[in-house]
Amino acid sequence: AAAELASEKIRVMDQRDKNFAFAVRTIEQNVLAVADYRRDLAASPGIEMASMLNALAGGYVPPTSGGDLVRNPRTLPTGRNMYSVDAEQTPTVEAWEVGVKLAQSLLEAHAAANDGAYPKKVTFTLWPGDFIQTEGAQLAQILYLLGVEPVRDPFNRVVSVKPIPLQQLGRPRIDIVAQTAGQFRDLAASRILLINQAIEMVAQLQEEGGDNYVRSGVTKSERMMIAKGISPAEARELASTRVFGGVNGAYGTGIMGLVEKGDAWEDDSEVAKQYLNNMGAVYGKGDKWSYFREGVFEAALQDAEVVVQPRESNAWGALSLDHVYEFMGGLNLAVRSVTGKEPKAYFNDFRNADNPAMQTMEEAVWTEAQATLFNPEYIKALQQGSASSAETLAETFRNTYGWNVMKPDAIKDELWDEIYATYIDDKFKLGVKQFFERENPYALQEMTGVMMETARKGMWEASPEQIRQLAALHAQLIEKYGAGCSGFVCDNVKLRDFIAGQLPPEQRQNYQQQIRKSLEAPAETEQDSMVLEKEVIREADEADTPLIERLNWGLIIGVLLIVATIGFLASRRRHARALEPAEL
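RE: above sequence
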């Protein structure tokens, strides 16, 4: 016992010495580099102009990594062809330490809630934002769960992985599944292949004295695929595949339209099936890159118990950005559909760079709701805005409904009751209804429609009085301003019937007449009268769409004109210089 205690003290002291040495080295490097940073900053404007003229003349512009100058001083001097992150160096040494810490926190939280048991399989969403900002911390978390560590070449590139000995690991090797967003796939294809390499390596390990959930998971996947009619040879080839994404190179899940059109599905298993089909493309080696075979994704998701989503920005949250319920929620629903059990959902919270942590889905939802939806100061600030501010709330309502579909246990009746009290009863006496009627009545039409659909689908046990009041307000807004005909106003036949059924005869007739009038109106007229525009949805969709697809033609033409003008002026300048000796 004394020897074990002494060993532990030495280990703690070694770690302290390591941390101290790292801190001294970091400070020394930064202090000594101050003069270089000053010089590079001063030189950057001239280098930028020279590089632009050189590029227009067909010259080569050397590359460099980009990003925040404070986080990545290597960006200096500017005027080079910047890329977001050097994917080949990820996970960096610092990111590896963060990823190990997050993996340990995740395992500890799961063990504490499950009588000491570790999860057999953890699922992840691979997004580009956190990958760039953290330089691969979540990738490190994935590798450490598998029980492998990076192998670096002399240039600090992560070229392979190697197993961490079981005695050192001190726990089972955890199986993983990852879904990739389109931009991550484009940015870091080599890291996807690195994950695949790690899976294959761990699945082939012959070890004694510890559980290898990767090995058993691969065997189980192979058996399920054979049972689904896949040939034994192909099943074996695909059994270790653990990274999936959009079919045919798609950039999104393609399920939000279905989720928000509640009359198009009766059971959430229909949404899960669509998700599995849309995101079931294998991203493996060779001809198995973007390869779809029905049943492979389901086989990989067997025994999944945890869903993890990265979050690196304070600008969005679980409720305010629809891509979160689209990806994280979609994966959660797929796991529930395959396993029959509700997985535990966490965020890798990278917002505080000095203290990244795990946050439960429930905590994230309620924290955001208290800070925004139910915060009178936040609502007052929005009321200083115009139509788009009102639409911000409508977007959040839609996303809350989306989470109700994807993960019902995260959105309780209490949340919807509080939404009703805040925006329908106006508990803070902020003149909420007057704000919407002044700036964007169509947003309030959408919000009341969302609440009615949530009740109609049985996801919110609203009282009869709440339903009557919502239906009456919804109908009043349509009668007074016409139907905005957004998704929850005109597109859902069953919802319209449900709302009509809550109205007295005369109001019901007026409501139905206004809906018919809007649906029969010419497309141009309807668009002109439509104030409610899903600007936030478009912006969020654009976040996972290639840049060239997002540029409007006006911007493209403007850029081309600027480039042509600069080129013309540069040409005239060179020509003038060439004539100077002759003119003298």
